[in-house]
Amino acid sequence: MTFVHPWAMFAGVLLAGLPVAVHFLTRPRPVAHPLSTLRFVRELLKQCSARSRLRDALVLACRTLMVLAVAAAIARPRFDGDVVSSADNPGEVRRVVVLDVSQSMGARDGGVQLLDRARAKANEFLRYQPGLRANVLLAGAAPQPVFEQLSTNFDSLQAAVRDAQVGPQRLELRPTLEAAAKLLQAKAPGSDTRRELVLVSDFQRRNWGAVDFSVVPADVRIELVATASSATLPNVAIVRAECPGRAVVGRTAQWEVDIANGTPNPREVGVDIAVGETAYHLQGRCLPQRVTTLSGEFLPTAPGWLWGQACLTGNDDALATDDQRACAVQVRRQPTYALITRQAESQRTSSSYLLECALAPDAALKERAAAKVLRISPQSLDRETLAPAEVIALDHPGKIDDVGLRLLANLMRRGKTILYVTAEPVDAVNLKLMSDVVARAWQLPVEFAAPVGGQSRRAMFLQTFRRESPAFKIFGEQTDAAIGGLRFSGGLVSRKLETGLSDDVLASYADGSAAIALSGVEAGSLLVLNADLAESNLSASGVFLPLLEELLQQSLNRRRMSTSLASGERLDIQLPTEVGTAAGLQITSGESNDSPIDGRWGRLADDGAGVRWSSTAAPAPGVYRVCRGNETVFALATGVHSDESQLEYLSPDVLTNRLAAGRNVHYQSTTETEPDADRWWAWLCAIGLGCALAELGLHLIFRS
Amino acid sequence: MSVASRSPYLDLRALASVSHMRFITRQRIEGSFSGRHPSRRQGGAGEFVDFREYTGGEDLRRLDWKVYGRTGKAFVRLHQDETNLICTLAVDGSGSMQFGGRSNSDSRGSKLDYAKYLTTGLSHVIQQGQDQVGMAVLREAEIEYLPPGGTASHVARLQSNIEQINTAPASTLAPALRKLFERASRRGVLMLVSDFLADDLIDVAAALRLFRHRGWEVVALHLVHPHEEQLPDGMAFRFEGMENDGSLSCSPNEIRAAYQQRFAAHLTAVRQAMLSVGCDYRLVSTGIGYMQTLGGFLVERSG
Lengths: 704, 303
Known about the structure:
Distance between the termini of chain A: 39 Å
Mean pLDDT of chain B: 86
Largest sheet of chain A: 8 strands, mixed
Shape of chain B: elongated
Radius of gyration of chain B: 23 Å
Number of strands of chain A: 36
Largest interface: A-B, 23 and 36 residues
Low-confidence stretches of chain A: none
Largest sheet of chain B: 6 strands, mixed
Order of helices and strands of chain B: HEEHEEHEEHHEHEHEEHEH
Helix content of chain B: 25-40%
Helix content of chain A: 25-40%
Mean pLDDT of chain A: 84
Radius of gyration of chain A: 39 Å
Structural class of chain B: alpha/beta
Strand order of the largest sheet of chain A: 20-19-21-22-28-27-26-24
Structural class of chain A: alpha/beta
Number of strands of chain B: 11
Oligomer: heterodimer
Shape of chain A: elongated
Strand order of the largest sheet of chain B: 6-5-4-7-8-11
Low-confidence stretches of chain B: none
Strand content of chain B: 25-35%
Number of helices of chain A: 17
Number of helices of chain B: 9
């Protein structure tokens, strides 16, 4: 507890004896008067003296308490526990002021930016006082100390606070607190140096909801300074804008925009998406406190990268920065297939023939089918032949030599999708050898093996399958009817591996063998269809084409690279294999083709699997392209982290009680002209008034 | 030879208004001489009262021979003797009787002054009725006693003694009454003038019961000063006792109501104590003139 005017307390203590003195000094001087009935008076006084003494004691207590209460009210006590030290209680003090410069601090509350309030308050803690050494941490995705250690250069610290700007980053608390704790570590054992940590922030629920102060030494006094004036600020934000799935030339794709409505009322919102020369408009109604997805279709006409920006129209809210968001999408050509088989092309009822027909169902002409599906003999596998194909299918390939298997495994690791129709016992050997090549990066969910005794597997049906998988979901309510009539023959038996992911098995036969398995291998994926298509009725059913199409799409999407990232987060992206080597690549922003010399947008480097784009922090919101010459080979859209758009703030009780975890944490708000800790004077005035009323009541009760 | 009294408390002009009135007792008394008051004895002279059958040894002069001649039975005639009144004026000499001294704002005087006026007037009236009057001043355990007498010089001496009565601190009255009882040998009337502010009210009643038992007629005149009935107005007083009982500071406002209740209870207690022993009790306020009190008393007594 501290006092704004301590002298008033001393005066109050001295004046506390005043009522008692006045009581005795102003007692009426008795007049001598002879009385014959003195014994009557004496009897009565014996009866009344206890009552009179009680009354006098109570009245004096009331008066004394009233004087003390008024004096204390003038002194203005502050019951704020371990408030940070001030010039009134000097001493050796080590102080770190953490200034939140995350994106949410750019919100405007009552026409004032939260960071402006934070700057003014932070500078109050950076005024000169004897014995004080301080430092400032600008807290965003990574903490940035103004000085390497605590300093007495308060002018520079205040200037750094004045110059601090909101960054398009999410506040990362853990490294910030660790950095603050490191700055405060320098304390001689046994010394009476006070250590203080001042956190000036808006205390967003998303960021601060799981704060852990345990990284800060226990004797550090923590002062929380909140900048927001209310529990929430109304904000509508675009938290995601992208094209889900694969955008393929000639096939309809979708833009999806997620709108977070942080207001208490539903909102009609409009979103303008400008991509290249084309503009799209989405309109929708957003429910309060929900994320609503608006979507719209577009038809890609040419392969390559598209980038642009989605903007909310007619939106006036607390945070304007998150009303637009960059987006990027790669439009691909129609996928091409390489079919590795030893079966002859002329063998029309073979499994490979049925698979080829399924891969190019709309190719009525043989020429078009050949352009889409390239049959390759297992003995003539080479990189140049396989590289153009997006999907490599293997059906009855026979025994593949080690070189071929190694080539297939490496292509799969670098982004190719392999569809393996396991119909023969030798396929189990091929899969085993492939998995050995990429053992560290890949683990099949099951281990395939040849049937025991060479017995042929016949007329098996799917006992279990994953209904939520897109491959089965497309059949809707007809799934059971469509799948129930399928009978499979051939294939391998499988044994579930303990280290494998059971989710990778999409369907299983009645004997427990895997029928369809899909697993990712670094940038690529492997899809296993465990059956002989020629002996199964799958190829003859209407299920085959959509099932195979969805399985391949699922495999291709699985290796789809993310093209969006939150600003400030660590950037580490493996570029697609078609990018080639890092030589000749440069990073540009938006429409510009200029690349910064200092590499602040990250660096491109070759590694064993291709080109890696890395940086300690993703750059500011926008689109960043990796170009080779004038050609864009990759694009990345960065934006504000969605958490920064949730302008909900923690209450003081939560911060000081639940999250403080027993620590003595003090809270104050920059918007309260008179904080709770400074309102005790009003209560003391009320107590003084109550004492006066109590004295009046005592006089009425005792009829004096 | 006439002896003129020099007592300042004897106002003959005022007493002239009651000179025609006599102090009449309500019961038969025992006097020294023949007088106008019915005697306890029944003799052969006086007013005929009754017959009584003769018993041996009686004076044959009272035998009614005519009755004896007619009936053959011997009866004696009984006549009511009349005798003079023997009155003892007992004045309380305790310190509390000094309460209410004459001041600039109050000319009524103390209770003792009032008692002096009253007893002086009574002695004059009794002496005018050819009766005997004595006096006693009652203090703690001693009395100042003047036996009853009827001569002018005796009355003058008595009035002089009354004039010279001084008070002494005393909180009891009963011992003095017992001493008076021992010294008063003849039955008569005991007129006790007191404020009864004594600690031994029960003993006082017991002592008066002795007088009543012997055949005395006891008249209790209870003197009350108007300033005793309620406490004075003011913020604070240091009340000083009048019977060596110290002093006490207090604010009268705090106990005013309770004091009035307590004093009323005292009056009731005295009245009940006096009536319980067969006394003629009269509450006399010193706020009323003593002649008015004396006149009222004599009117009531004269029947």
